[in-house]
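Quick one: VASH2 protein from Pheucticus melanocephalus, structure tokens please.
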Amino acid sequence: SRLMETAREMTRESLPIKCLEAVILGIYLTNGQPSVERFPISFKTHFSGNYFHHVVLGIYCNGRYGSLGMSRRSDLMDKPLTYRTLSDLIFEFEDSYKKYLHSVKKVKIGLYVPHEPHSFQPIEWKQLVLNVSKMMRTEVRKELEKFARDMRMKILKPSSAHSPMKERPRGKSLSPRRRQGSPQRRACRRDKS
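--- reply ---
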């Protein structure tokens, strides 16, 4: 809800933004399109002894994948909705990084972002984390396609949905009971100066 307010302000002010703000703006601009599923895709790359992080908004619509984003490199942001599989989209990003001598170390994929603009559900940024530098492409493809299939079937739920809050009965404490033999806490702390 707060991020959507920030996105509204970004459109009013037209200030320069970076990749993370572009993802939030992409979510905001696609909120009214329920047929478009959106999810974050993060990359960790290595170049010349340094690590770099980048994030785009993955898009799934009508059986095709694409992305929205912001980068100084045109092939590291928007990708058209033409990729038949999630792995095809990820491998396209990996190939684009190679052009700039970056090696992709990790790819993190989050869950679908809800279309409700006033939702208080946090964005799940890294539901699937792949250490692609230590995996064969066939393994990466297998993991990505299993994840994509589960997401399309809406099997994967945010971590907050896995463990709902327990109702606390009135007058009961959730902390473990103090055993009789336990020493009582001191009322004041000793000054250690």
